Fold these 3 entries.
Entry 1:
Amino acid sequence: MNTVFSCIAAFLTGIAASMGLGGGMILIVFLTVFCGISQIEAQGINLVFFIPIALSSLIFHSKNKLIEWRDIIPSIVTGSIGAILGTYAAEHIGSPVLGKLFAGFLLIVGIKELFSKREKDIK
């Protein structure tokens, strides 16, 4: 798999994620299933592209006054701690087990989305 192609795929799915389309999950599945990249490497690529995409999303949503600024600092702190702990755990779990855990997570999220009712659906 070409590194440039991986970067382009990561960038495009990052843009999708910034618009709320779940691009991060799509990218990891794409890189592992279609590109043959290990789970840990795919998650690393996803994290590398998350930062600039998140910053651009922050600017975009800030200009549209869609950000609750008092929530930013706790989110940064807890997100950073979670990323550090998650990286440590991923290194020790290993790619095969991590892939199975990620597949289970996707299955649970998918089932939840299929059977959950949103507020606009309840009206």
Entry 2:
Amino acid sequence: MADISMCKGTGCKRKKECYRHRAPKSDYQSYFVNPPLDTDTQACDYFWSTEGRYLAEQVVKRRKVRK
């Protein structure tokens, strides 16, 4: 379970790139009531790139290996 507020991605064009939409879910997961998406600009203040998260996890793994 991801310990974050998840997003259902309704109406979002970038939901497949967003960790808040793609993270592993559980039965007790919290979600935004409405997607935090500005419908005029398609901007989201809560967007969390899956690519950035993946890269950060790789850096942490490499640091552990070097120690």
Entry 3:
Amino acid sequence: MQRAARIGYAGANVGNRGDGTPEERAGLFALTLLALAVGALAGVLGAAFRVALQAGDAWRNALVGWAHGHAWVGLLLVAVTTAACAAVAAFLVRRFARYASGSGIPHVEAVVRGELPHAGASLLPVKFFGGWLAIGSGLALGREGPSVQMGACIGSVLGALFRRDADDRIALLAAGAGAGLAVAFNAPTAGAVFVLEELVRRFDTRIATAALAASASAIAVARVVLGSAPDFTVASMVPIGFGQGIPFVAVGVIAGLAGVAYNKAILGALAAADAARGLSVEARAAVIGAAIGVIAFVAPELVGGGDSLTQLALSGGPLATALPLVLALRFVMGSVSYAAGTPGGLFAPLLVLGAQLGLVCAWITGGDGTPPAAYALVGMAAFFTAVVRSPLTGIVLVTEMTGNLAMLLPMVIASAMAMLVATLLADPPIYDSLRERLLRD
């Protein structure tokens, strides 16, 4: 049996351990060296993308600030600017790299499974600049989608450049994807876990070694630019005992129901965009961009990737009366923005919604002595699990992004309930649905 059958998604056996013949050990060593190089390059590109997005956020906020002093003219300018940025991003995808649309993770998964071809190096500038235009102008999309697909592309290109066989090229692609996620959220362990849990969905020593090496080198390089502090600041918390963990069962159930609804909203928005055949891809993106621009003018803190909203929730959150409106708006904005056909991911918007959902649950309990921020943190992991159906990735990701270990038990409880509810309702994981949709196009 060829090694591809063991590494591939459909294989039933645990992958090769890498401790067989001297040739296999030498191959694993060479693969690890290449993975380190892939990670370093993904770290440079991912860090540059994050810095570019920070600049984009600053420019957008400056534009909105100026627009507030010019009434209707200012509103029109913000809407037109956002519409133009979204349209250009959609044009870049349509004209130069069709697989750069959306998150890119469904394409990476399809390549791992042998269902679609590798993307060429032309995807890199499209994903970078298209993602910068879309997210920087205010669409509710995440930076991790572009970072993951760019990292995967780097792994694939380097594998081909160094004439590695098909199996090693897939391993490097997966390792690059994990490195991209690690840089996007400053979460090296989550990057490796994502590769094993979401991309290949089982343990393989060669891929695990490559993923760990790539994530480590990516973070080492990126932290030179971005620093080593966690993405979010959370006050110190006392670990939750079993009795205090019971309310988080309800958090998980609610997150499971909300996750199913969000998956359907994303797919529904995509179907609605497909049905608008009278409009070009660029025109559809412009319409969505204009609507986001209006929201940016009225409530600039609600647009974009949403890190500021997540941080606000983890710091105690807005007034309870604002929670339903914020949650509803971001729910609609996330699904509609994804239908624009521009580069941009789902993870960051999921974390925003999960944090807001957690605060709503804290408000419902009426204050049981547990800090609202604890509910927000648990809500992030549970909602991520409900939508993506990768609980370990979600738990590790939230833990690394916040530097908080005290809420591990509640996160496990809530994620288990969210997983159960979403599975019992027969709702497929979002990336499975998006991958199947991609294969039909």
